[in-house]
Design a protein that fits this description.
This protein has 228 residues and is α/β, with parallel strands linked by helices. It has one domain: Rossmann fold. It has 7 helices and 8 strands. An 8-stranded mixed sheet has the order 3-2-1-4-5-6-7-8, with helices on both faces. Helix 7 links the parallel strand 6 and strand 7. The longest helix is centred in the middle third of the chain and has 27 residues. The model has no long low-confidence stretch (mean pLDDT 93).
Length: 228
């Protein structure tokens, strides 16, 4: 069985990714900050639950210790937890957005590395965004050029760069970032755009189920590698 951890998996794209990976035979750990919501989602999915707040070192380390004790390895890690941080800007909000969307990737990856190294086919997927792509936000034909998402875009640019740098630092592990497509979730409700989380999750699942000869250090959407 492939052992998979998905952060922020109690709803949205994370939940649908968990559902699809379970259907393909993965043992999935639903990581969620809120224990009640996470346990409910895991029970509905037939997954396992770990309390995981990506902004809290003790929570992250505890979650990975739990998985390590139960499984001895981690085959797939999906960084899905994220916040939008729209509206008025200030320092505390910027710190919160970057702590979740970028620093959280570092926390979880570093805690997971020993378990990933124990896998025969380790894969890390970061749910990033082309809203963090210089190419996309400066392209008037792309919806990203119309969205006023200063902190989200900047933090997702950081998330993609972290993906590339981790791929360089750990060539034995595949690290890829994914643009799942405009998706109708709680986070994007104010914009009134997007397709179903189920459809977008398929893009994440494709990168989460790569073979050992798959690419690494890329940002991709459903059509392949994206410039950024």
């Amino acid at each position: 069985m492939t052992v998979t951890l998905i952060t922020g998996a109690n709803k949205g794209i994370g939940y649908e990714t968990a559902k699809q990976l379970i259907a393909s035979g993965h043992t999935v750990y639903v990581g969620a900050r809120d224990a009640e919501r996470g346990e409910k989602a895991a029970a509905t999915l037939g997954a396992r639950f770990v309390q995981l707040d990506v902004t809290d070192d003790a929570s992250v380390n505890g979650a990975l210790a739990t998985i390590g004790a139960a499984e001895g390895r981690l085959d797939v890690l999906v960084h899905n937890a994220g916040v939008l941080g729209d509206g008025d800007l200030d320092g505390p909000k910027a710190l919160r957005v970057f702590d979740t969307n970028a620093v959280g990737i570092v926390r979880v990856t570093e805690a997971a590395l020993p378990l990933l190294r124990a896998s025969a086919n380790p894969t890390v997927v970061t749910v990033s965004s082309s809203a963090g792509s210089f190419w996309a936000v400066n392209n008037p034909e792309r919806v990203e050029s119309t969205l006023p998402l200063t902190l989200y875009s900047a933090s997702k640019a950081a998330a993609t760069m972290l993906t590339v740098q981790y791929a360089k630092a750990h060539p034995g592990i595949r690290f890829n970032a994914v643009e799942p497509g405009p998706t109708a979730t709680d986070m994007t409700a104010a914009f009134g755009i997007g397709r179903s989380p189920e459809e977008s999750a398929r893009v994440v699942v494709r990168l989460a189920t790569l073979g050992a000869d798959g690419p690494t250090g890329t940002l991709q959407d459903e059509d392949g590698v994206l410039p950024w």
